[in-house]
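Researcher: Next entry in the queue.
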Amino acid sequence: MATQLSDISAAEMRSAMIDSQLRTNDVIDPAVVAAMAAEPREAHVPAALASVAYIDRAIDLGGGRYLNAPLVTGRMLVEAAIRPGARVLLIGAATGYGAALLARLGAEVHALEEDAALIAAGRKATASDAIRWIEGPLSAGVPDGAPFDRIIIDGAIEILPDAIADQLAEGGKLVAARREGAVVRLVQGVKAGGIVALRPFADMDVAPLPGFEAPAGFRF
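Model: Structure for this entry, 220 residues:
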């Protein structure tokens, strides 16, 4: 039987998430905090998991996909420095939590997802006209929508395909998580001279995103 949350208990959980998970870990940007305080995270998880929607770790969405912990999302959004009107490509949009937050920040969101069931759930959970859902391979990006001011890859990757880097506008920023052996680090890079050099800014537990595995023997 699905567990439902009352509006009051959900609001209380969001408040606790902000105070105990976000503010204590450098997620203090007013716009990001306001967006995460307003967006019902429980709408983006299976109904049976609504009561743990605000837990401080990834939530299993099925099929090898996860909704990353709130802190991961918050740190990525702060680092991305979203401005109203920015054209953002969100890769691995899943059930739309990140897309909804980006829309609340005023972005024009291109939400890329390859799992049809997740897209259906995401469409149901997000009603913003600022979100355009695209179904297709995650590693291919959305070339017909490029260039993008920001690209956010919502999951841990081992390699960054050239096809994705090519879709970032000159001077634009890409934020992702990179797996290096047993360690996962949040990374960011600004495109300069056609090159995106990724630099780490935090070690964090981030769920892997399929389609970005490195060939055997590959090293960064």
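Model: Residues 94 and 216 are 27 Å apart (CA to CA).
Researcher: Noted, moving on.
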